[in-house]
Amino acid sequence: MEAAKKYFISDLRVMLGRSMRHIFRSMDTIFTVCVTPIAMMLLFVYVFGGAIQSGTDNYVNYLLPGILLMAIASGVAYVAYRLFLDKQRGIMERFHSMPIARSTVLWGHVLTSVVSNVISVAVIILVALLMGFRSSAGVLSWLAVAGILVLFTLALTWIAAIAGLSAKTVEGASAFSYPLIFLPFISSAFVPTDSMPKAVRAFAENQPVTSIVEAIRALLSGQPVGNDIWVALAWCLGIMIVAYLFAVRAYKRSAA
Known about the structure:
ABC2_TM_bact-type; Nod_factor_ABC_transporter; mainly alpha; ABC2_TM
């Protein structure tokens, strides 16, 4: 058992290193992920911000949680893309013929997604600070925000893995991310849900992005979180578990 665990960690380190080298040799992937959310943040703060009644004097504080989720939804598309290329080029079959733990091939991509998205989120927060973002959150609140964002990243990454392993074309592998990127628009990420028509408001208030955004926003502003954090965690964990099971099933089919 100890030997199996040792070899799994060793194999995982190799696969993670391989995927991370792809990231660092092509840093444009991280910059591409950051460009659209940062552009959206600039547009909404400096163009639309004065016309939006968000109930706060500092609109960038209100906007930032939704922008972070958009960046993560955009970033996980690269997981689907890289998994599809590995499958199409026969690299997975080559790995499966080697004496390594098969699951590490998939986990290497997943952990790379977490690391690359952490970098993207850090860049966006730095830009937000330059735009006037300020937080009264303590260390524990920041750790809670980081935990929610990592769980959200893992949940979407496993969805991306399903797309990458099941797609027939490279376009199909990354197309799944488009609805995820635009989901924050129908939530409380940009405007309070009170201003929405009844049908739209009902959807916005009962979809995962709203509860996640509200939890992060409350944590960053030092306000009571209430039930939002538990709803957010339930959404993230529920999506992650279901997506993981389907991703593993798709991976086993591709390895057969």
